[in-house]
Amino acid sequence: MDEEKTINRSPSQASIIIDHGAEQKLVRKLDLHIIPIIMLLYLFSFLDRVNIGNARLYGLEEDLGLRGNQFQTAVSILFVTYLLAEVPSNLVLKKFTPSRWISFITVSWGIIATLTGVTQNYAGLIVCRLLLGLVEGGLFPGAAVYLTLFYTKRELALRIGYLFVSAAIAGAVGGLLAYGIGFMDGVAGQRGWRWILIIEGLPSVILGIATWFLLADSPETAFYLTSEEKHLMQVRRDRQIGQTASAQRFHKADVYAALKDWKVYAFCAGQFGTDTMLYGFSTFLPTIIQGLGNWSIAQTQALTIPCYCLGALSYVVVARISDSQQRRGVYTVIFGVISVVGYGILISNASTGVHYFGCFLVAMGLYVTTGLPLAWLPNNQPRYGKRTTATGLQLTIGNASGIMAPYLYPRSEGTRFIRGHAVTLAMVGMANVIFAFMSWYLSKQNARRRRGEEDARVANMSEHEIAELGDFSPRFVYTV
Fold first, then answer.
1. Cβ atoms of 311 and 366 closer than 8 Å
2. Separation between Cα atoms, residue 397 and residue 395, nearest integer Å
3. In whole angstroms, what is the distance from residue 138 CA to residue 88 CA?
4. I need a surface site. Which of 32, 91, 311, 475 has the fewest CB within 10 A?
């Protein structure tokens, strides 16, 4: 049953009628103008962030004289500035406008990623990684919030899922690109790893310039929408409980509301667990697979591709189902369990083929378990200020796992990496428990509201005042 239909709606919301054919046409137009740009932005962002794992296979450590855990430090230190940038970046997104702000950070990280290819020592590598994190940190939270400006809660998981499809494509294509670019070893007297970083960084600069002109700042200013379509966008927003005109503006009170909401921190803790898997698996999959057998570099890169493809396909299918049913928790937990089983297989004393199968199970749950909560939390935050703060916190605390993840897979613990797999298994297991609890708790709250047990809180309020309560309104239905 659609819970939104079982909880009393305001008279104005109940009277809203939408031409569903026109709405479907509108959503297709939004997808055409928004999704390709957002996907490319995150694809190049993720590629520029994790291609250091591929560069490692082509002599980066030897040329820069890295010793001990210095490579792991170079990987993880990016997340120090990355984390510090996420919430502030979201808070200034509307002030500087999405097109200009995202364009600025994209051009900036493209330049920094390219120049990383000419660094000459460990200190230079550390500086480049710190700067890269500082400018890249605002992209994903900014993109997630940007999508909420155009899409309804029933459309959001699939669109955020496209970002993870981009990450999967970056993982698969990154290996192929690294293999091809690796043949440039010695060209102009430069090693192959340098060419990998230089060539993969340059497209971000071009894309950033294009973003300035192609990305609309809001539905009201979207150059590709007709006046009738802009009106339909307004109607779509009015149809959602709590999506008032005032709620779409930035209010400091909404920021404080997010900071005081325990549910936000529960999602943050769960995100930390799943992101441990995301960054450990994405960055070190070539290293993990190389440890499963006597593979050449080309074979190792090729063997990563099916894993990424399965992960992307799983998310697209599950996100469509999740959007249509408006159920996030059950699929997050189911696919989290699948990844836990995959790590259990990797830990076990099994054959190479069985261990490779374990990589597929991890990949199958990877993007679902990481991605659905990133649609789930903003679904339950109709007010812009609270939504942008909550999403920024969720990603900041979640991405903090990126500092820890690289140290889970030191070369000295290859080829099995039992400690890394075991810690990641435990973290994903913790996330499963948190998300299962949140699904149960939010379902319980919906049941209370459906029975009218919270109506007394708004007995003396006007319809406008009730609508301004956002997710605290007894008419608001949590996505579970």
1. yes
2. 6
3. 8
4. 32
- 396, amino acid identity: T
Report the run of H or E that residue 385 belongs to, with start and end.
helix 384-399
What tokens does 39 get?
């996907």
**DSSP H or E run through 467:** helix 463-467
425 to each of 36, 148, 260, 346, how far by Cα in Å? 34, 32, 30, 10
Place of tokens 């939390």: 377
> Distances from the Cα of 196 to the Cαs of 21, 110, 190, 193, in angstroms?
46, 13, 11, 5
Residue 414 tokens read as: 């290859």
Residue 126 phi/psi, 5-degree rounding, is -65, -45
CA distance 123 to 329: 43
Q: Does pTM top 0.85 for this prediction? A: no
Encoded tokens for 242:
């709590």
Question: pLDDT tens digit string along 380-439?
Answer: 998 989 999 999 899 999 989 988 887 888 878 877 889 999 999 999 999 999 999 999
Residue 327 CA to residue 446 CA, distance in Å, equals 13
Q: What is the pLDDT of residues 343-367, one digit of tens each?
A: 999 999 988 899 999 999 999 999 9
Would you state the structure tokens that stand for residue 402, as one six-digit string? 């990126």
> What's the N-to-C CA distance of the chain in angstroms?
13
Q: Give me the long-range contacts of 231-238 (CB less than 8 A, separation at least 24).
A: 232/18, 232/19, 232/22, 232/23, 232/26, 233/26, 233/150, 235/16, 235/18, 236/18, 236/23, 236/152, 238/12, 238/13, 238/16
